Amino acid sequence: MAYDVVVIGSGPGGYVAAIKAAQLGLKVAVVEKRATYGGTCLNVGCIPSKALLHASETFAHVNHGLDSLGVEVGKPVLNLEKLMGHKDSVVKANVDGVAFLFKKNKIEAFRGTGKILGAGKVAVIDDKGGEQVLETKNIVIATGSDIAGIPGVPVEIDEEVIVSSTGAIALKKVPETLIVVGGGVIGLELGSVWSRLGAKVTVIEYLDKILGGMDGEISKQAQRLLAKQGLEFNLSAKVTGVEKTAKGAKVTFEPVAGGEAQTLEAEIVLVSTGRRPYTEGLGLEAAGVALDDRGRVEIDGHFQTNVPGIYAIGDVVKGPMLAHKAEDEGVALAEILAGQHGHVNYEVIPGVVYTQPEVASVGKTEEELKAAGVAYKVGKFPFTANGRARAMEVTDGLVKILADKETDRVLGVHILGFGAGEMIHEAAVLMEFGGSSEDLARTCHAHPTMSEAVKEAALATFFKPIHM
Ligand code: FAD
């Protein structure tokens, strides 16, 4: 056997699995068909979108004035080419970083499409059709996901006028108007970017709320704040057509409950209706690897498919399509392959929406607890009552903590506010150790910090907050 592990795909799942396996002494190869490593996340997902979010936030901050802070500046001028240059350089630094880590850990990387020939054999097919076969004890499928499109609606995504997230992170000019089909995380993040830079953004969403799986109260407040920033929302609206026009593209939609259809036109339409597992060209059928009813590679509790020696992790398997979930699965699987006891706690996977303010959550929502018949108590604390938030003029939002009524164990934490994506981790650590809201409330928090709102919300679940 030439390798202990061959990983197909170098996204957060694949590259982390490869590095961890190499660190544990296994001989590892990675096969990647993209020109650079890092997968969707580093090339066209998490990283470029966050570079754009940061730059556009800075622009909007200065554009809307710093007068109240006593900082007088002129109107900012947008240089979109430079802004995109910032994004590209951040992506380059990250993908180069993965290439460096492969070298450092003596991981052999092969450029080409990986095709499974059966347990223990992976063909690497290069651009010119040349083929090389790698022999290995274990195969890891980490091929990620691709855009899903709108169920039942044929849409031609040209990445110029009708775009997916990949086109939306590379627009050459700020559109006057942008329609976002799908009010999930990606649509709202990229909608916010272009709205801040000057586009009039309209979101069309099938559900009666934005951010589908989020706690209802938090999602409602987030929508209110985004609407204040200028985003328009059409909820409970079913899109039935997206077509190009002379001036851009038009979207036809009708109320989900039934009723008259409407048409809206915009310079650009972003289709962000979700992602689907990517398994094309892998040869899974011939290799006998089973998929589930949603096209995901089926795995057992140890990431193994129905074919011994073939494993799968990340977006291509069940669970939230998040980079850190893929990474944690990569680490756990590498440990298992090295004879250890890798494990992922799916109950404690934080989710962050990088709008401004950010929305972050971990654990159960109020709706989930109600549906499961769990008796719970709620503690909330608004950032308007937090000194640091006032000092920074970021008083929008709140912390909401859900704890078991009997045991006080924290079951879910939801934060809408500046820096929510950082603050959520103290809740995640607490929940990982099965902590109670009293544990959280009795942990000394530095003053003045936004995180004091977490402590106060914890206090509110069983007694009273101090500053309210
Ligand atoms: P991927 O990152 O998709 O990597 C799979 C890799 O496999 C790709 O490079 C692909 O080229 C390669 N591949 C596929 N088939 C083959 C083959 N046969 N042979 C060789 N190579 C192959 N998640 C977050 O947690 N936080 C965020 O802020 C966030 N922002 C996002 C923003 C956007 C715009 C998008 C689109 C996604 C975002 N995500 C975010 C989701 C995140 O990108 C994914 O969850 C993550 O990339 C999944 O990692 P993965 O390793 O499973 O797959």
Automatic annotation (TrEMBL):
Pfam families: Pyr_redox_2 (PF07992), Pyr_redox_dim (PF02852). Disulfide bonds join 41-46. One of its GO terms (biological process) is 2-oxoglutarate metabolic process. The keyword Chaperone does not apply. PROSITE patterns: PYRIDINE_REDOX_1. GO terms for molecular function: dihydrolipoyl dehydrogenase (NADH) activity; flavin adenine dinucleotide binding. NAD(+) binds at residues 182-189, 205, 274. Residues 3-330 form the FAD/NAD(P)-binding domain. It is an enzyme of class 1 (oxidoreductase). Residues 349-458 form the Pyridine nucleotide-disulphide oxidoreductase dimerisation domain. The keyword NAD applies. Keywords: Disulfide bond, FAD, Flavoprotein, NAD, Nucleotide-binding, Oxidoreductase, Redox-active center. GO terms for cellular component: cytoplasm. It catalyses: N(6)-[(R)-dihydrolipoyl]-L-lysyl-[protein] + NAD(+) = N(6)-[(R)-lipoyl]-L-lysyl-[protein] + NADH + H(+). The active site is a redox-active disulfide bond. NCBIfam families: lipoamide_DH. This is Dihydrolipoyl dehydrogenase.
